Every structure is written in structure tokens, then in C-alpha cells.
Amino acid sequence: AIIITFRININSAEMSALIVILSIISTAAAFSSVSTRNVASNVQMAAEGFSKSLPFLKKPKNLDGLIGNAEFDPIGFAEYFDPKWLREAELKHGRVSMLATVGWLVQSAGIHLPSPDGLYDVANPIDAFFHVGASPIAQIFITIGALESINHEGKLGMTDMHKDSTREVGQFSLPIYGASQLKGKSEALVNELKLKELKNGRLAMLAIGGLVHQTIVTGSDTLGAFPNPNLWSLY
Questions:
Q1: pTM here?
Q2: CA 82, CA 189: separation in Å to the nearest integer?
């Protein structure tokens, strides 16, 4: 009876070990199967025209041929609005953001235009905006608006900006913009420079947003300390 019991115990131990080993093998096989299915799924999705940026969504429409196209348009704006107008807006926002980022850092460093009456002496960019008053701001907007109107021949709307126009998206024809610097360069180099501008503009849009919020959080004379529960009562 003792020998039989001993053998049964050994067999039970072996059976337990066998069960553990089989469990490990089946688990590994399951993960391997999932991995194989994922690879196959990704290949199938790419073949069916899914987005490079968001492979679980269909490839966006109307973006082919645009420099820097990462096939990212989850909301589908390009299906309802002119992609040329959207790219024009992206480029201009990027260019303004690059200027704004540099201007914000320069102003914060205390570098400013000479002003005998102290009009431009405020280092905090938020305070500086409100300190100069409406007239200088209006002059900037009017000047930019005039240059934009000249460049687009008065077509500033979404529906007519690129209508019957051979102008390249984002191109400024006036000599003061330096567009002539691209003349004589290879197409590959031009496309590379345009891609760099686009990516730097995208980064600058994030940068200026971060700078504005950082300045708000650190506090200003105009908005007060953060958070300011009495902010709206100031006005």
C-alpha cells in the first residue's frame, strides 16, 4: 500500500508539472497567434488603404500630392473644405507662430524697440500687448491685411482664394518675402525646404501655445496671479 501510494504521488507531481508546461506552451502559442494576426491585419489594412498615421482609420481623401502629407485627417476636413485653403491656413498659422515664438522670447528677455515714453518697455508679453493700446495693434492688422489682399488679388475667402488661380499654395509673390531664393534650386531641395518650413511651423504652433499658458500660470499684471477667481471682474 505504501509503494502504490508513493507511485501515485509521483504520478500526480508529474501530471502537475505536465499541466504547467502545457499551460505555458498554450499561452505562448496564443500570444504568437495574436501577434501573427496583428501583422496580417496591419498588412491587410495597408493594402486596403488605411491611414499611415492612424492605421485603424481609412486613408483621408484629397490629401495626395501635398508636401508633408502624413495622412492625418481623422475628422475628414479635407472632404468638406478645399485642401489648398486648409494647407494655406496651416502654413500661415505656422509662419505667424514662428515669428510669435521668437518675439515672445525676445520680449521676455527685455529686448524691445526704443520708446522714450516707455510704451514698449514691458517685458511680460501679455502685459505688453495690453500696454501698447489699440492703435499699434490696429496698424499691424491693417498692414498685414493689405499685404494679404495684394498677394491674393483680393481673394481672401475659402471658396475663391484658389479659384482660377495658378499660384502655388503658400507662395508670396512680392520680393520682400524672399520667394525668389527658391529659384534655380532643384525640385528635391525645394520640397525639402518646404517640408522643413511646414514641420517647424507645426512645432512653433505648439510652442507659442505653451509659452502663452506658461506666462498665464506664472502670473502677469494684466491677468493677476494664477488661478485668479476674480479675473472677469477686472473688466
A1: 0.72
A2: 27
